[in-house]
Amino acid sequence: MKPIKNICVYCGSNPGRLEAYADAARDLAEALVSRNIGLVYGGAGIGIMGAVADHALQLGGKAVGVIPQALMRKEVAHYRLSELYVTQSMHERKMRMAELSDGFIALPGGLGTLEELFEIWTWAQLGFHDKPCGLLNVEGYYDPLIEFLDHAVTEHFVHPSHRAILIVENDPGKLLDRFTNYQPPIVKTWVEKDEI
User: Fold this and answer.
1) CB of 106 within 8 A of CB of 113?
2) pLDDT, tens digit, 9 for 90 and up, residues 13-32
3) Given Cys at both, which of 1, 11, 19, 54 links 107, Cβ 3.0 to 4.6 Å?
4) Does 64 map to a domain?
5) Which residues contact 170 (CB under 8 A, 6 or more apart)?
6) Residue 184 class from Cβ within 10 Å (0-12 exposed, 13-18 middle, 19+ buried)?
7) Which has the closest alpha carbon to 65: 89, 88, 93?
8) DSSP character for 171?
9) What pLDDT is attached to residue 196?
10) CATH code of 161's domain
11) Helix or strand or coil: residue 193?
């Protein structure tokens, strides 16, 4: 495993119902900065996105945002970041975030967060990358999803080795420790990178 320099964090542009979600975003920012790991995220200055970026910057860390032109106003782009990339599409946004990152963590969020997490996890399953993917399960937010994923394994729609790619922890420090020691499973490559 190569050194982790930047972690991509997927999370909501809304604050959610509980203050614990923003608290966890700040805790994750502290854990990243204490390990000299940069933050890569969706580039918004509001919601959980804003909380994780603001706290990383307050602590002297690096925060890189990637946002599509169409969401500059809707997600309220954060203009005080270390770097802000503006892309032409969502697909370009996700690709740039993946290229800049050595691992991926989902904090609580909505459909966009889930879509980003599942896409990057699928890319790992297909062998397009061997970077760690994780859930920071704040206040049990992801409990129903975890239960469903385990059910999908039981029903033979998800292979246990593919399920094991997704690391789940409640504590950001423990999650990052597991990322540092991550050994990607050997997965059957269905298609080569140059075929996509």
Assistant:
1) yes
2) 999 999 999 999 999 999 99
3) 11
4) yes
5) 136, 137, 138
6) middle
7) 93
8) S
9) 53
10) 3.40.50.450
11) helix
Count of structural domains within the chain: 1
Query: Residue 94 and residue 113: Cα distance in Å, rounded?
Result: 11
Task: Give the pair of three-digit tokens for residue 6.
Answer: 């930047």
* pTM, rounded to two decimals: 0.92
What is the DSSP pairing of strand 6-10 with strand 63-68? unpaired
Token readout for 79 is 């203009």
Within a domain: 137:
yes
CB 130 within 8 A of CB 141: no
pLDDT given at position 122: 95
CB 22 within 8 A of CB 55: no
DSSP state of 170: S
> Closest Cα partner for 120 from 110, 139, 135, 136?
135
Angle between helices 47-58 and 19-34 (to 10 degrees): 40
Do the bridges between strand 133-136 and strand 38-41 make them parallel or antiparallel, or are there none, so unpaired?
A: unpaired
Query: Where do we find the tokens 């896409």?
Result: 119
Contact 11, 152 (CB under 8 A): no
Can you say how many angstroms the Cα of residue 47 is from the centroid of all Cα atoms in its chain? 15
- Predicted confidence (pLDDT) per residue in 106-160, tens digit: 999 999 999 999 999 999 998 899 999 999 999 999 999 999 999 999 999 999 9
